[in-house]
């Protein structure tokens, strides 16, 4: 069976952020596929709607037999399971799961768009991606994650998170 390589951005800015991301990792491994890469946790200022708590973000690499649409369905299921309520864009959330890449595919199917349409604009996405896949090439922009991070014009703070640090 051929396996698809996917990258998922996880994020949380409500409640016990680390715990929500740990639960998301476990559910992804159970429902989607084998975790084959895990970035550090990054603490990041909120993007889009900035008057909310900081996020913890992490990028995961998985190998999955599932199709892109089934992966998206599973991501939404996990978000709901962990208390996510979708009311408005860029609202605070217990967990947010974004499908960044599905192999080197370029897909636009209903609400599924891969590569993620804003990943090249967001330092909080690129920094953890560069940690685990610096040479990964964006299939539309034809630039590596490292090159995209070097060029990104995102002023928001992104730092590796250490538990217990202010």
Describe the structure.
With 166 residues, the chain is an alpha+beta fold. The chain has one domain (4-160): Alpha-Beta Plaits (2-Layer Sandwich). The protein has helices at residues 17-31, 68-81, 123-132, 145-151, and strands at 4-12, 34-38, 42-44, 55-64, 96-102, 107-109, 112-114, 158-160. Strands 1, 2, 3, 4, 5 and 8 form a six-stranded antiparallel beta sheet that branches. Strands 6-7 form a two-stranded antiparallel sheet. Strand 6 (107-109) and strand 7 (112-114) form a beta hairpin. Helix 1 (17-31) packs antiparallel against helix 2 (68-81) and helix 3 runs antiparallel to helix 4. The model has no long low-confidence stretch (mean pLDDT 90).
Summarize, please:
By secondary structure, the chain is of the alpha+beta class. It has four helices and eight strands, in the order E-H-E-E-E-H-E-E-E-H-H-E.
- Total of domains: 1
Radius of gyration over C-alpha positions, nearest whole angstrom: 15 Å
Give the N-terminus to C-terminus distance in angstroms: 46 Å
What is the multimeric organization of the chains shown? single chain
CATH architecture: 2-Layer Sandwich
The largest β sheet comes out as:
6 strands, antiparallel
| Class based on secondary structure composition and strand pairing | alpha+beta
Mean pLDDT rating: 90
User: Approximately how much helix is present in the residues?
Assistant: 25-40%
In the predicted model, the low-confidence regions spanning at least 5 consecutive residues are none
Shape: globular
Percent strand equals 25-35%
Number of separate strands: 8
Number of helices: 4
CATH class: Alpha Beta
What CATH calls the topology is: Alpha-Beta Plaits
């Amino acid at each position: 069976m051929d396996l698809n390589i996917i990258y998922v951005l996880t994020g949380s800015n409500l409640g016990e952020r680390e715990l929500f991301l740990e639960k998301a990792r476990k559910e992804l491994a159970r429902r989607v596929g084998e975790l084959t890469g895990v970035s550090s946790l990054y603490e990041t200022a909120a993007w889009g709607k900035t008057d909310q708590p900081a996020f913890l973000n992490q990028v995961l690499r998985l190998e999955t037999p599932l199709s892109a649409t089934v992966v998206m369905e599973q991501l939404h299921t996990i978000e709901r399971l962990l208390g996510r309520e979708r009311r408005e864009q860029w609202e605070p959330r217990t967990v947010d799961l974004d499908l960044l890449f599905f192999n080197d595919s370029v897909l636009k199917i209903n609400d599924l768009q891969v590569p993620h349409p804003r990943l090249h604009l967001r330092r909080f996405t690129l920094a953890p991606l560069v940690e685990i896949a610096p040479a990964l090439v964006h299939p539309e922009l034809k630039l590596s994650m490292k090159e995209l991070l070097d060029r990104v014009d995102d002023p928001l703070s992104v730092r590796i998170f250490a538990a217990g640090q202010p």
